[in-house]
Design goal:
This protein is of the alpha/beta class. The chain is built from four helices and 17 strands.
């Protein structure tokens, strides 16, 4: 993967940010150890994204000053440290750094699959749902529980557009889009649908066109 700075400099950059925002003297050295695997996961994800700035001449490209890319890196990094060591304070710091910098709330214990894309994700909260690959999320989206603490299941190649919410015991099929400002609560959305708000409720209709951000060579389902 082509990078704006070396992995060594990136590790130092992240450590300095964590020490600046959380100057409690806690250990941030686990960041450096987890970064190689984090970058491997990031490269795998970016190779499947065709959006501008994510690939150059067929090669995945990472710029630490690109907000969407850095938000994705911080989520994967926090999750990678969590997978290795459990919920240590450094995981909370990386998670909180992502909220401070990008207004994005994706807890490190939330398991997004290998392929996802945060597009201008300020104000987005992704809870402990079951997620499929090729997840596309825009700003001010919410995935969360209902009063019974039931969480959604979200299939492959699902796009959540601005202000969309998927809550409770909802099942979103593969190849679905949840339109802007649409809330799905305790409902099943069939595969190959677009769901959109209509007055005080929502409705669905067939829609098969994949999101433009994905490399079609990888959309084999």
């Amino acid at each position: 993967m082509k990078m704006s700075i070396s992995p060594e400099d990136l590790a130092t950059y992240i450590e300095r940010q964590l020490s600046l925002f959380f100057p409690d003297g806690g250990d941030v050295g686990l960041v450096r150890a987890a970064l190689p695997k984090t970058l491997e996961r990031l490269d795998y994800c970016f190779q499947r994204i065709s959006a501008k700035y994510f690939r150059l001449d067929g090669q995945a490209t990472f710029n630490h000053l690109h907000g969407d890319q850095y938000a994705m890196l911080l989520y994967i990094l926090s999750n990678e440290v969590y997978r290795r060591h459990g919920g240590l304070p450094v995981c909370d710091k990386i998670f909180s750094l992502n909220k401070l910098l990008h207004g994005l709330d994706v807890f490190y214990a939330v398991e997004l699959l290998a392929i996802f894309f945060f597009s201008h994700p300020v104000g987005t909260v992704l809870g402990r749902a079951k997620y499929g690959d090729f997840l596309l999320v825009y700003q001010n989206c919410t995935v969360g529980s209902n009063h019974n603490v039931d969480y959604p299941e979200i299939g492959k190649n699902v796009a959540l557009y601005k202000g969309a919410a998927v809550l409770g015991c909802s099942r979103i099929g593969d190849n679905c889009k949840i339109a802007a400002d649409t809330t799905v609560m305790d409902a099943d959305i069939p595969s190959g649908s677009i769901c959109f708000r209509s007055k005080d409720t929502y409705s669905c209709k067939p829609y098969q066109r994949p999101a433009h951000v994905w490399d079609p060579n990888y959309l084999t389902f």
